[in-house]
Amino acid sequence: MIRRRTFLALALSLALPAAAQEPIRIGLVTALSGQSARAGEAITRGLTIAIDELNAAGGVLGRKFELLRRDDEATPAKGVIAARELVFKEKVAVLFGGLDTPVSIAIVPIMTEAKVPFMGPWAAGTPITKNGTNPNYVFRVSAVDEIVDRAMLQYAQKNFSTKKPGLILVNNPWGESNEKGLRAAMDAKGVKPAGIEKFEGNDVDVVPQLTRLKAAGADTLFLVGNVGPSAQVVKSLDRMGWKVPIVSHWGPAGGRFTELAGPSAPSVHFVQTYSFFGDQRPIGAKVLKMLMAKYSDIKGAGDVTPAVGVANAYDAMHLVALAISNASSTDGPKIREGFYRIGSHEGLIKRYNKPFTPDNHDAINENDYVWTQFIDHQILPVGMKK
Amino acid sequence: MLVTSALITGLGLGSMYGLLALGFHVTYAVSATVNFAQGSSMMLGAVFAYGFAVRLGWPLPLAAALALALCAAYGALVELVAVRPFARRGSNAWLMATVALGIVADNAVLFTFGKEPRGFSMPWAAGSFELFGIGISKLQLLIPVAGLALAGALHFFSRNSRSGKAMLAVVQNQEAARLMGINVPVAICAAYALSTVFAGAAGILIAPLFNVHSDMGTVFGLKAFAVAILGGITSAWGVMLAGLLFGVTEALITTLLGSTYTQILSFLLVIVALAAMPNGLFGRAEVKKV
Fold first, then answer.
1. Which portions of chain B are predicted below pLDDT 50?
2. Residue B283 lies in a domain
3. Residue B286 burial class via C-beta count within 10 angstroms: exposed 0-12, middle 13-18, buried 19 and up
4. Strand stretches in chain B, DSSP E
């Protein structure tokens, strides 16, 4: 009997340190194939660079981080299956989402039920974080539709003297989220739209919708759609021969926009949260150097595309590490509380100062946006020459 | 201006629906079977042409001709693998088998061609000009012309060539055709090859307006089947006209009433039309002699 107890004690003493050193698993469910594959790769790279950095410094709670990725193929059903697998089978401490608002919205109830924090490094749909749950397990380091919508109107009025905008929005929950946000932004400023038109992600020709907006006297277009659909709008405008300022959400950033949209691609001005072009703070220069060292296809700032995916994911991963450190645990509810105790943190996008509170789960606001356009195949701040 | 613009858009898209639907008609007339994954055949045409013209840099006419030849071969494969083994036993499993083969083709393209959609520009077709106060690209005019020309070529071929007459004979009476020395299985296989060539041609024509990716044909294939039924699948000109009608209706609804109503109203109209004319707008009731 004594011998058996001694054996068990020995086994436990051997097993415990091993368990303590098990890596903290971080999940990522995003589009790794299809039209937005590049965006999924950018999120992956941002997370990987941050995890390498954290692991090199010894990790958190004496444990290193490990990234597990799953492809949601931009469809909510596949995203939900992948999220369930990562949360319940792989036991990830925190799950990162991808760039599709419908997928993220579908995942939110799973995370609430499992009490595991869900971090959004891209999808901008307002209801992802403002989801009505209590306690709310969803956090975000990315643009937020309702804030972007206010910024779009402000940018258009300042730069194009917009008086009568026409809205051309993709027909999905992301488009709906922005319709609501743009309507509110326009109402607040007493602006009446020329019209609000929807189009399908697989539409070949958007000329009928654009013709209606043109006939109604639209002087600027507000565009919301992922890279493929946004390109269809630009090509349709070309066919019509209608030159009109286009102020867009950040959909065009997610892929080969210049190739898909053709010569008029630079006419689209779209929002970003970060650009690696221009003068960088030391942290920007450091991250770019790490990216160039890790990925052979990155030779300079222009190769970090889309930059928002990399930057948002990089900052979000560091904030997650701080939350876990504050929680001294990988228990979901404790990590959630840990987010609220983050004080000041020097990030890539900005210096964060109490980024999350129980009333605010979004770390980025309109003061952090950068307006950009495609020049050749690179996303540059508007007006900047290569 | 609104209506003219809708007509131009509608005729372009409509002729693409018509071409795909013509593919349904050709095989249905000859064998009472169809390739339900006609959208995948359309995608293959665009992907092959993109591969030859952009990746290998071959001249576009050569790339298009080779792409269509490969489409014909794929069509024959569909018949041999997914239709014949089932139709021979009197089973309707070809229905699911053609869908399955289409999914295989879509995924094979996903892994070989790549996951990202690619732009396929044809500079000679990119220019636009103004007509009746609206901008029109050359391609928008070329697409319906090419679509109708292909439908006309089918009409001419089926009436003036030996193989075409053989196919017509199979359409009328398979047994009698066999007794007259016509190789019925070959005629059916040729019909599938022809059907896939039509779909491939639609894919190549639409590629510069759209982008090239593995699921570019899915929605088109579904709409084309609705068009084939609407036109009366037994009538060649009927399905072509129904394609044009569907395309123009879609564009007119979007332009005049707004995009919110496009899908609801266009498909409701299809249901109403079929309720009033169960054999389609231009089809005839089939008479089976027993």
1. none
2. no
3. exposed
4. 128-131, 134-137
Task: Tell me if chain A has a CB within 8 Å of the CB of B115.
Answer: yes
Residue A43: what residue type? I
Range of the domain at B176: 2-113+137-276
Domains with residue ranges and CATH for chain A: 10-143+282-366 (3.40.50.2300), 146-272 (3.40.50.2300)
The pTM of this model reads: 0.80
Q: Give me the helix-helix angle, A101-114 and A173-189, nearest 10°.
A: 100
d(CA A236, CA A230): 10
Q: Is the ipTM of this complex over 0.95?
A: no
Beta bridge partners, A357, equal A360
- Is B285 a member of any domain? no
DSSP letters along A55-121, please? HHTT-BTTB-EEEEEEE-TT-HHHHHHHHHIIIIIS--SEEE--S-HHHHHHHHHHHHHHT--EEES
Q: How confident is the model at residue A172 (pLDDT cuts 50, 70, 90)?
A: confident
User: Which residue is it, tokens 């044009």?
Assistant: B244
Return the CATH number at B158.
1.10.3470
CA distance B73 to A250: 42
Q: Which residues of A touch B119 (CB under 8 A)?
A: 231, 256, 259-262
Here the tokens at position A119 are 């971090």
Q: Is the Cβ pair B13, A199 closer than 8 Å? A: no
Q: Indicate if the alpha-carbon torsion angle A188, A191, A193, A198 is positive or negative.
A: negative
B174 touching A, CB under 8 A?
no
Measure in Å the smallest separation between the Cα of A364 and chain B Cα atoms. Answer: 29
pLDDT (0 to 100) of residue A152: 95
Give the number of residues written for chain B. Answer: 290
> For the purposes of burial, counting CB atoms within 10 Å of the CB of B175, is it exposed (0-12), middle (13-18) or buried (19 or more)?
exposed
Residue B120 lies inside a defined structural domain of this protein = no
The 3-state DSSP class for residue A281 equals coil
- Facing residue for A198 by CB, picked from B206, B216, B260: B260
Q: Rounded to the nearest 10 degrees, how much is the dihedral formed by the CA atoms of A246, A247, A249, A251?
A: 30
Q: Annotate B189-220 with b (16+ C-beta within 10 A) or e (fewer).
A: bbbbbbbbbbbbbbbbbbbbbbbbbbbbbbeb
